[in-house]
Amino acid sequence: MKHNYVLKKFTLTPKEQSQIEKRLERLSKFFGDETEAVIKISSERNKEKIEITIFEGGFFYRAEEVDDKVQNALDRAIDIIERQIRKNKTRLQKRLKKDAFLPLPDEEIEDFEEDEISITRIKNIPYKPMSPEEAILQMNLLDHQFFVFLNTETQKVCVAYKRHGNEYGLIVPEE
Q1: What's the rounded Cα separation, in Å, for the pair 96 and 99?
Q2: Of 38, 61, 93, 129, whose CB count within 10 A is highest?
Q3: What are the φ/ψ torsions at residue 83 (nearest 5 degrees)?
């Protein structure tokens, strides 16, 4: 697995980098050698935040954790990704390495009951051309977590969404 680091207000020492890569080896049984993991590390208010994003086979695997120490946050983030993969094991078997789910001799076998995906409601919405700022205002007026709109700048259907605190995100489709 390839590692790509993005640092914000954080200095990564070679020792910390090798520890991170060693701990990420736990996930190598699921992914091929060409898979890229993006590790974002930031420091805010005496807390270390780590965000791991892995893109493989058309799927994103992502975990974000905050702790006093980056190593603790890293361990919990890796556990989250591993849990996501194991929970959706039957759906993901075709997309991950073919021997990803063979149990190791000392590995504890953990079976999750697979939840049936059930769509309980379909909502058709008209989307209007507007700027991202207008879309965020409309989303806040509706008290929603996300809002679908036609971006006047790009002429693409986009999604504005709330992030942590008072931050917002924008999903823009690629061609």
Answers
A1: 8
A2: 61
A3: -65, -40
Token pair 């893109």 is found at 55
**Sequence-separated (6 or more) residues with CB below 8 Å from residue 134:** 149
pLDDT digits (tens, 9 = 90+) for 113-149: 556 778 888 888 777 899 999 988 888 877 789 999 9
CA dihedral 72, 73, 76, 81 (to 10 degrees): -140
Backbone phi and psi for residue 122, each to the nearest 5 degrees, phi listed first: -120, 130
Calpha distance 144→168 (Å, rounded) = 12
pTM: 0.59
Nearest to 139 by CA among 119, 125, 153, 154: 125
**Contact status, residue 148 vs residue 127, Cβ threshold 8 Å:** yes
Would you say 1 and 24 are in contact if contact means Cβ atoms under 8 Å apart?
yes
